[in-house]
Amino acid sequence: MLEATSLTRVFGDKRVVDAVSFRVEPGRITGFVGANGAGKTTTMRMLMGVLAPTSGTVSWDGEPITVERRRTFGYMPEERGLYPRMKVGEQLVYFARLHGMSTYDAGKRTASLLEHFGLTDRADDLLDDLSLGNQQRVQIAAALIHRLTALVLDEPFSGLDPLAVDSMTDLLRNEAADLPLLFSSHQLDLVERLCDDLIVLSAGRVVASGAVEELRERGSEQYRVVLDGEDAAWLRDLDGVEVSDVDGSTALLSLTGLPPADLTAAVVAKSRVLEVARVRQPLSEIFREVTS
Ligand SMILES: Nc1ncnc2c1ncn2[C@@H]1O[C@H](COP(=O)(O)OP(=O)(O)OP(=O)(O)O)[C@@H](O)[C@H]1O
Locate the ABC transporter domain: which residues (predicted)? Predict the structure, then answer.
């Protein structure tokens, strides 16, 4: 398990990362979200040892992390680190060799990753000649090239088309099935689809963290009521509920006193009803609540 404890980084007089603590558990995909400038990249760089913390620690299985351990992490930095004028296949083999793989294994691994990303026929092209999305795929392949014990990926999905996102998602689920995997993203719909756990950073601090499901449960609970053609505005007069939105025969409300089990009966007593449903709070809503 990868763990940050009270990680802090000060630049000048600015506390960019402020006492950030979290765990990235093996076998769970952890999303790292926060507005621009919240401190995600800075935190990930400290996790990887690319940047020294002002204070705080990074540990692996309860022990201070070592250079050797970090070498076994797959890391995709924000500043992508590939060689633009080198052939795609050659550079993947090169990175694999840097990680100590034999020429044979490096070639095999490269071929398999290129195939997964649909890039087999681009192996002999220069990186620069690929579209940005394809360059991104090669970058991901580079992060996955060696035998991994953890993955730390900074914005791995940015610039990928939906198909590439899907194949990347599959690959991560396979490759990281037993590993701690942390990735940052601004695409909340994707984070919602992919993540087991979530860390929300705001102005350098963790403002929410935990299992995505639990965070949703903690959020304000809402219900959608759809009447059979009738205007739903009358629900505003119903005791024990607070209506936040009415659109024709549909109302969105939260319960301020009425027990959930009584909601349907209370509405049915006055109207014909098509639907009463609990609304799962989207991640974007949780994000807005904890960062505002
Ligand atoms: N080397 C540095 N020197 C001074 N300030 C820095 C340095 N690196 C980062 N910062 C500042 O730290 C803050 C956090 O930046 P960081 O890149 O970690 O945020 P982020 O959450 O990754 O943002 P984004 O989502 O835009 O990538 C920003 O205000 C940034 O300007």
Answer: 2-228
**Is the minimum distance from the CB of 185 to ligand 1 under 6 angstroms?**
no
Atom of ligand 1 nearest to the CA of 12: 4
Does 38 sit in the ligand 1 pocket, CB within 6 Å?
yes
Residue 56 domain boundaries:
2-217
Residue 286 lies in a domain: no
77 and 101 assigned to the same domain: yes
Question: What are 154's strand-pairing partners?
Answer: 184
137 shares a domain with 260: no
Cβ-Cβ contacts under 8 Å for 158 (sequence gap 6 or more): 136, 185, 186, 187
Q: Report the run of H or E that residue 105 belongs to, with start and end.
A: helix 103-116
Predicted ipTM of the assembly: 0.95
Please give the pLDDT value at position 132.
Answer: 83
User: Taking the model in full, what pTM does it have?
Assistant: 0.81
Establish if 290 belongs to a structural domain: no
